[in-house]
Write a structure and sequence with these properties.
The chain has a two-stranded antiparallel ribbon. Helix content is about 85%, strand content about 5%. Helix 5 crosses helix 6. A hairpin with a 7-residue loop joins strand 1 and strand 2. Among the domains are: about 60 residues; about 120 residues, no CATH class; about 30 residues. The chain starts with 17 loop residues before the first helix and ends with a helix. With about 350 residues, it is mainly α.
């Protein structure tokens, strides 16, 4: 049986063929062209987005401004805010605000007095004008009467006509002055009424300013005295109570002193206890030494001192004991070295 060999697909893919390579090159060119076109229109898109964002922001600003301008809530908030600011100024500078009000009132009074003086000057001017008009009217009538006489005696018509025209001019001028004085009289009456009212009003204003000035002076004294007394009282309360920080520091200091004193007193008590134990030990040691010394003396008494003729063993330092004969008669009286009396005797020697 013949063996079948595997078939190998030798067909080339599209991209490995010449037309596939040309197609890939064309696709690359199209992609490059698309990227280039996109780079051209990208600034336009960015600008459009920026303008859109700016437009939305400006719209929000316009809406906020419209709300601030037309909303009752914003108006109330503005009034409350201004009242708060005004309250701050009033609470900080109350006397200064009142004095500023008085200063403004005095400035307005000075302006009003200047206007009243101006009205008075206009009244005098109008009176002088009326007086001059009356004089001019009388003079005009007199000149018209004189011209009339001259016209009656004129020899020709031209001179008579000229005199007649002069008569009419003087008469018209005099009549005009009289008519003006009638109007001026009414105006003068009104000006005098206004001047009288302003003078009375100025007197009331002067009284009001003087009275307010005196009241402000009294309020200043009262306010200053009250603030001084309140400041002294506040300082006294601070001295007694102190602030929260001072009280905290004061409490910590007192706690530290209490703790430190307790600790040191405990150390002193413990040191006293240790010292007492040490002194008690010394007393015990001294007592033991005294007892041992008494015992040694007692032993020496019993060994070396006997009753009758015996030999006394003398112990010299650095040598052996030697017996020394002691005659009975040579020792007439010996102190008693009994156990009962010897301890007291040697105890008295050691003390």
């Amino acid at each position: 049986m013949a063996m079948e060999l595997p078939t190998v697909d030798t067909a080339k893919s599209f991209w490995s063929r010449p037309e596939g390579k040309v197609g890939a090159l064309i696709l690359l060119l199209i992609a490059g062209l698309g990227i280039y076109e996109y780079s051209l229109i990208l600034p336009w898109f960015v600008t459009m987005l920026e303008d859109t964002v700016h437009m939305v922001f400006l719209g929000c600003v316009l809406v906020a401004m419209g709300w601030l301008l037309f909303s009752k809530t914003s108006h109330m908030m503005f009034r409350v805010l201004m009242r708060v600011f005004t309250g701050l100024f009033v609470s900080v500078y109350p006397i200064e605000i009142i004095e500023d009000k008085l200063t403004e009132m005095k400035k307005r009074r000075d302006k009003m007095n200047a206007q009243i003086s101006e009205v008075s000057g206009q009244i005098v001017t109008l009176q002088r004008v009326m007086t001059k008009n009356h004089q001019d009217a009388v003079q005009g009538f007199n000149m018209a009467h004189a011209a009339q006489d001259q016209a009656a005696r004129a020899s020709d018509d031209a001179e008579r006509l000229r005199k007649q025209l002069q008569i009419q001019a003087n008469a018209r001028k005099a009549q005009r002055r009289e008519n003006a004085n009638v109007g001026y009289a009414t105006l003068l009456q009104k000006l005098q009424g206004i001047y009288s009212f302003l003078s009375k009003y100025a007197a009331h204003i002067d009284f009001f300013i003087d009275d307010t000035t005196d009241e402000v002076e009294q309020k200043k004294i009262e306010y200053k005295t009250t603030n001084t007394a309140f400041g002294a009282m506040t300082m006294a309360m601070k001295v007694m109570k102190g602030s929260a920080t001072e009280e905290d520091i004061y409490g910590q200091a007192m706690d530290y002193i209490e703790s430190d004193v307790s600790r040191k007193l405990g150390i002193m008590d413990d040191l006293q206890r240790v010292s007492q134990n040490f002194m008690d030990g010394l007393d015990v040691q001294e007592g033991a030494v005294d007892t041992q010394a008494l015992q040694a003396l007692n032993d020496y008494e019993h060994k070396l001192l006997t009753s009758g003729d015996t030999e006394l063993a003398v112990m010299l330092p650095g040598s052996t004991p030697q017996k020394v004969p002691v005659a009975r008669g040579s020792v007439t009286t010996m102190p008693s070295f009994s156990n009962s009396g010897g301890d007291d005797y040697y105890s008295s020697l050691l003390k």
